[in-house]
UniProtKB/TrEMBL annotation:
The lineage of its organism: Bacteria, Pseudomonadati, Pseudomonadota, Alphaproteobacteria, Rhodobacterales. It holds the Pfam family Phage_connect_1. Gene3D superfamilies: Phage gp6-like head-tail connector protein (1.10.3230.30). It comes from Pseudophaeobacter arcticus. It comes from the Bacteria. This is Phage gp6-like head-tail connector protein.
Length: 93
């Protein structure tokens, strides 16, 4: 899976900087929950690099865009996430 240290590195936060740990952990948990809600297999072992990148992209997105929307700007989930997770989604018939 993705560690807090990997998320900090991806978001370009110094590893020794503890001020954002709680906020980043929430973003990390939210990213994993979001992908699980899309029926993505988050229990793969080994964890595929494409899923790791999707989680990191979501963490950075959630960390940088704390509000759902504002009058000045609206943000969508990064488009590349859909393509990264597509092969790992469980399909129900």
């Amino acid at each position: 899976m993705v560690t807090l240290e990997e998320a900090k590195t991806h978001c370009r936060i110094e590893l020794e900087e503890p001020d954002f740990d709680g906020e980043l952990q929430i973003a990390l948990d939210a990213a994993v929950d979001h992908l699980k809600s899309l029926n993505v297999d988050m229990d793969a072992d080994p964890f595929p690099p494409a899923l790791k990148q999707a989680v990191l992209m979501l963490v950075a997105h959630f960390f940088e865009n704390k509000e759902a929307a504002t009058p000045e700007k609206t943000w969508l989930i990064p488009i590349g996430v859909d393509r990264l997770i597509a092969p790992y989604r469980r399909v129900s018939l």
